Amino acid sequence: MRRVTARHVCRRPVITTPITPASWSHAEAFVPEDDVLAAARARAEEVGVVPISPGGGASLRFLASVLEARAVVEIGTGTGVSGLWLLRGMRGDGVLTTVDIEAEHQRLARQSFTEAGVASQRARTISGSALDVLPRLTDGHYDLVFCDGDKREYSAYLAEALRLLRPGGVVAFDNALWHDRVADPAQRDEETVAIRELGRTVAAHEGLLSVLLPVGDGLLCAKKVWSPDDED
């Protein structure tokens, strides 16, 4: 019998059937949302905020749980939808630091956290521009940084996240597919170009291990890989 070695194995690209709307909807609803999250979503609709999808939120909860996250930064508080998902995955003593330029949105988010029974000391809301606030946060202190702010600032958020994250920490960006625009090279508006360039930067970065999850409007995640310099 002829011995098959690695060089004799025929490698062919795996072609899968694109996901159907029914399967996408099934995946999005796989982890159901409760009344507290539904109320937070209703507040978001009232003030014109588009929160992370249920599938994206469940992914954030999963990441926070796997990381046993004690310290998380969120850029874009909204009315608390993503914050609730993050807090539910974090350790019981974990603290969410969430930043938003709209103080009224943060008031509504605090209402959502209260309804969920989240202790006030576990959710620190900071009103202001993310690029003004983030430089004041502690280097290497955070387990997870979630970005859902101004898409044109995503590359700047990445630079801040790399400083804020501990080795092994994760940065995640919502709207990484941006309503199917990122995959279409004909789309050249400022926000689409910024998100597209972010994806290229993350994929090529030697210090990041990345994945693009097709949940919601796309969730781009990257782990900060440990390096000897991290011990300096």
From TrEMBL:
Q: Which domain of life is it from?
A: Bacteria
Q: Does the keyword Methyltransferase apply?
A: yes
User: What keywords appear on the UniProt entry?
Assistant: Methyltransferase, S-adenosyl-L-methionine, Transferase
Q: Which Gene3D superfamilies match?
A: Vaccinia Virus protein VP39
Q: Which GO terms describe its molecular function?
A: O-methyltransferase activity; S-adenosylmethionine-dependent methyltransferase activity
- Gene Ontology biological-process entries: methylation
The residue stretches assigned to a coiled coil in this entry are none
Q: Which InterPro entries match?
A: Cation-dep_OMT, SAM-dependent_MTases_sf, SAM_O-MeTrfase
Q: Which Pfam families match?
A: Methyltransf_3
Asked if the Swiss-Prot or TrEMBL record annotates the protein with the keyword Coiled coil, the reply is no
Task: State the protein's name.
Answer: Putative O-methyltransferase YrrM
Q: What is the lineage of its organism?
A: Bacteria, Bacillati, Actinomycetota, Actinomycetes, Propionibacteriales
